[in-house]
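so the lab meeting is tmrw and i was supposed to have these ready like two days ago... anyway. pasting both below. for each one the top line is the aa sequence and the line under it is the structure tokens. i havent really looked at them closely yet so no promises
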Amino acid sequence: MACNPTGAASSQAVPSAAAPEAATPPASGIPVSATPIRLVIPDGLATSSTAETIDIVTDQTGAPWDVAPAHLQLTFQGYTLQSSYHVPQIFVYPGQQYAGLNPAAAESLKRLQTVLSNPSGSYGKDTLPRAPFLNAAQVFAAQQKLIHFNGGSGVRFITQYGQDVSPINNSGLFYHFEGLTDDGQYYIVAVLPVNLPFLPADNNPQSSIPSGGVPFPAPSNSPQSYEDYFKQVTQKIDASPGGKFSPSLDTLDALIQSIATGP
């Protein structure tokens, strides 16, 4: 899966955390069972989901970033946001097989295991796990938090991917979760679009900036001005209460926390 060009930024650190947040499934919602996982879609997040088993892709049959073993792809229908570049999805891979086929997956799993084994460490966009199937760079990482689900744990954060330098925007912004089951068997990746009211609608540098937003530097500005821009926007995202996001971070956390594996 290729990614929309969106930008580049300096590294941000993950706040220290002694342990993953305990699993707190949503009080009500739509139950979903798609082997090998189960979950509950919180009320108002989406109307349904479709599960598909994606066949193996090798370097002979697909692009390098698409190489993967057969895996589950869960796609949410009627998702609360309809204008994002990203499709709201959760992927479940056989972890060791994926790592053996795709070097990017092997690196991401290594990073994830490092975070889980040392949750009080400091991690930035270049050391956090990344989606192996997105053919672009991780621009920034904000709102990082460790989350536990029934049978495993992982890290979530808000991010955007890019192939060039352009604004952080609501078309590219997403909630990203990467997790691993306790037995190491399954590697779980979630890409769930989110919006914030102070971000522009898309990655066009000429797009209007909402109230409270940070203007994107003009082409004539110095390289440092772009670094300053990404730093300011990342700080604003980090400082934003979870309820300011659409959908809220609490809602998306509840979706992830509802995941269960095994019998």
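ok protien two:
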Amino acid sequence: MNVINKYFKGDPNIWAIIVGLSVFSLLAVYSSTGTLAYSFKQGNTAIYILRHSGFLAVGITIAFVLHIFPYKYYARISQWLMALVIPLLIITLVTSFRWLKIFGISFQTSDFAKMALIMYLAQQLALRQAEILDFKKTLLPMFSVIVVVCGLIFPTNFSTAGLLFAVSVLLLFVGRVSLKQLSGLCAISLVAVTILLGSFYGLQKKGVDNAIMKVFRTETWVNRIDRFIGNNPENTDLNENFQSIQAKIAVGTGGFIGKGPGNSVQRNFLPQPFSDFIFAIIIEEYGVLGGIIVLFLYLTLLYRSILIVRKCDKTFPAFLVMGLSLSIVFQALVNMAVAVGLMPVTGQPLPFISWGGTSMLFTGAAFGIILSVSREMRKDDEVKNRKSAEKQPPEEPESATESEPEEEYISQTE
């Protein structure tokens, strides 16, 4: 235990959350990749779980390494990261691929953009607190960066762009910008997006197909919305809504305690049981109880992050922790909502549980930065407690004239 306390600093509850999510990740991925292994690896289930374990180990290692560095370094590199993200997103948009391969390593640029934008906004909000209500100097420049980043992500990954926009706006609200001005900009943005989506929706229904609509993947999200709201009477075949139906079956047959580890049936039918719909597999095998535990882990992360924010005496670490924790928790809630049929299919993985190298690595980085701030806060608390103890006056020794009751009684009887 002393060794753990020596090297793993920061909030121990967040480390416990990482361990809990890792356990669910290993169990669920191992179970849900069984069919994949029999289809492509001659039944060798060890291949996929070893690969996933490797990504999980790297994610935890990244969290460990980043939590060692003081959070001030993340403020210094935030603008450099943002300058790097914009060109990468432009390349992604031009090539119409979500993934880029650099030096043999594939990664999803939207995951990189999420972290970079949150770090950038936290740094800018901290620098501009003295003029936080100035629309031209503060809100407009930051909101413009949000629109640019989310706009570049939007064509290839609509759900990620929406999530990032929501987290960024909430972070601006926490940063005490003018609510009236922020609401006005959000309203204008939502109207513009609604008009754009409505136009594409109408063109798609008329059978129009051009290069721009292919870039925006119009057919994909239009079909998903139609299937979710049941506005697709021409296509009533089960294959049109196959994923959602199989996920609902998995959730419905799980019961309260589930079928037990490795006993999922719907993993054989769900196209992405180890990624987008892994929460449905968790409920099927571990029941509603398992689902509640997973939800509890994410909500506990948000709660512990709020406690860290309350202890921060500087604005940058507070905004940084709040933005990163909201990003993780919001993504988890969206994934869960899709799995139980409350939202249309989005393609969002369950953070630190779903199969996926890029998501695992960047989520580990987010955990590491949160723990870095927590480590600094705990160190400050220890210093304050030490100084407080040194300032306390020493206890006065008992007077030599005072005697114990027994001694006093003896002296009176002599």
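from a quick look at the 2nd one: DSSP finds 16 helices and two strands in the chain. The chain has one domain: 2-378. will dig more after coffe
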